[in-house]
Write a structure and sequence with these properties.
Blueprint: H1 10-29, H2 38-55, H3 64-82, H4 88-108, H5 114-121, H6 125-135, E1 143-147, E2 153-157, H7 170-181, H8 185-196, H9 201-208, H10 212-230
Antiparallel strand pairs: 1-2
Helix pairs in contact: 1-2, 1-3, 2-3, 4-5, 4-6, 4-10, 6-10, 7-10, 8-10, 9-10
Length: 232
């Protein structure tokens, strides 16, 4: 969108891309602790959009939409990193959760329920639910800003892909689909609603009849099950 003088109409572009900012914020929210507010992610994304407006150069060949998409996501990830939102203790807890699920699946020959996992870890149900909320952080992919060959900034994944990201790898597709198929029905439905139907947390909670925080816990538990199967 350009003005009569041939310059980019920033106000019009900001209004056009605000829904994109919100979509990115919602896609990250399910992987974050409740202490991270959706509005904070949106604010960071808006700064990324403004940065894209100031930096965009169409001579590099990338469309503004592609460029803005990368800048918005990157700005949100930078904001999360600046908060040091993933303590080592939470990483240890996430690994312990994966290991407990793996042991129980081997022992029981089926997906363990929440009480069985909590008992295996030696913690109460309330402590287990808090652990799910905290460890949900660990399923957010780490991204870095990098430069493409033509100089246009892009967001590049630098950490080990999550089990769901592995769906993009044709070699792992069969294993991932089998792991998802083995999930309890409610967790399987949750993943389908979020990753295929692209519903937000509130909408998924309405379908499942649970709160948004409970959706986050179930998502964390589902991904822990996938990790235990895909990363033995």
């Amino acid at each position: 969108m350009y003005t009569a003088q041939g310059k980019i109409n920033q106000t019009a572009l900001i209004e056009q891309y605000m829904p994109m900012v919100r979509r990115h914020a919602l896609s990250l929210q399910v992987r974050l602790p409740a202490s991270v507010e959706l509005d904070d992610l949106i604010q960071a994304g808006m700064l990324g959009l403004l940065d894209a407006l100031g930096r965009y150069d169409d001579s590099h060949g990338a469309s503004f939409s592609t460029y803005a998409n990368q800048r918005i996501r990157g700005a949100m990830i930078d904001e999360l990193r600046s908060r040091d939102w993933m303590p080592r203790s939470v990483r240890r807890s996430a690994r312990a959760l994966d290991q407990a699920v793996r042991r129980l699946e081997q022992q029981l020959g089926r997906a363990p329920d929440e009480r069985e996992i909590a008992r295996e870890m030696g913690i109460s149900s309330d402590e287990y639910h808090r652990l799910l909320t905290d460890s949900n952080n660990g399923f957010l992919l780490a991204y870095d800003e990098s430069e493409t060959e033509n100089g246009v900034a892009s967001v590049a994944e630098t950490s080990t892909p999550s089990p769901l990201a592995s769906l993009l790898d044709a070699d792992n597709r069969a294993n991932v689909m089998a792991a998802i198929d083995a999930l309890p029905e409610r967790e399987k439905l949750l993943l389908g609603l979020y990753y295929q139907e692209e519903l937000n947390l509130k909408e998924i909670g309405a379908v499942l009849g649970v709160s948004e925080s409970r959706v986050c816990q179930l998502h964390s538990q589902a991904v822990a099950r996938l990790r235990s199967r895909l990363n033995p």
